[in-house]
Amino acid sequence: MSPDSGTAVFIQRVLIVLGLVVLGLFLWRIAYALLLGFGGVLVAVFLRGLASKLHQWTGLSMGWSLALISIGLVGLLGLTAMLIGPSIASQFRDLNDTLTQGIEQVRGFLAQQPWGQRLLRSVTQNASQGGDLLRSAAKVFAGAADALLAFVLVLFAGVYFALRPDTYADGLVRLVPKPRQARAREVLQATGNALWLWLLGQFVVMAIVGVLTTVGLLLAGVPLAPALGLIAGLLEFVPFLGPIVAAVPVLLVALTVDPQTALYAMLVLLVIQQTESNLLEPVVERRAVALPPVLVLVGTIAFMLLFGVLGAVFATPLLVVTLVAVKMLYMEDALGEPVHLPGERSP
């Protein structure tokens, strides 16, 4: 090989590396938009999964099945809002006042302890009362507005993805060299199936945890149990971190009654979490997607540190996608090992 050709190859490799770096930086800059797009994919997978079941049961076309499922979900949400919406809204208004009382009680307890007084002084020194409170309120309001906008965007993206999934799948497959396009389509199909099974199992766990939390807190004498149960069920979507965050308002509300009620509430939460970890999750994962708990914990923390709250929300489904890709493209294709994909019967 001549020196000129060697130099040309070196320059070509340098340009490829630079191109990959630029592409990586670009993807990093639009990571928030990509995560929202992935949220839309989850919504689309859920809608298509339900529509597929309706198509199998009734023989209707996928288009009509998808339309009926969408109309049915909107009608169900509307009916739920009409029947229990005012009650839940009232409970959340009361929850705001009760949480304020709980925080004041915690602050009063800290003020009676030497170490608590030092902690309160440290917090007071790090935050001036006037401007910081206003800035904090503004941040909370802006965060709520951003979350609502993101939710709406995810829903609309999910509907568009669900209406024309083949269009977007074909676009992704065309980015792969032609000899590998058939395999890429298989990976996409397996990934969609795994996400559908994970979503199905996750919604089952969320519903059970929400109901158990509501019943348990009612028995423990904790006020506003339905609102707290709804929060616990929704936050169950985020493994490990979600239940911890959900426990904070529960304990603050229970403290407004008395310390004994707070202790009962803590026992209720511990029993529910043990039931979920040792009973619900093994049963659900046997029919859905089994992920190593340590991998889920590390992945959730890593995505939260990289992309904030949105990263924590989508960490587990992203791990599901990664797991399927590694099994099919590395373990099966590169190593030649047999793999078991979600939804397949064990040999």
TrEMBL record:
Signal peptide: none annotated. The chain crosses the membrane at residues 6-27, 32-51, 63-84, 140-163, 195-220, 227-246, 293-326. It comes from the Bacteria. It is found in: Membrane. Pfam families: AI-2E_transport. InterPro entries: AI-2E-like. It is a multi-pass membrane protein. Keywords: Membrane, Transmembrane, Transmembrane helix. Belongs to the autoinducer-2 exporter (AI-2E) (TC 2.A.86) family. This is AI-2E family transporter. It comes from Aromatoleum buckelii.
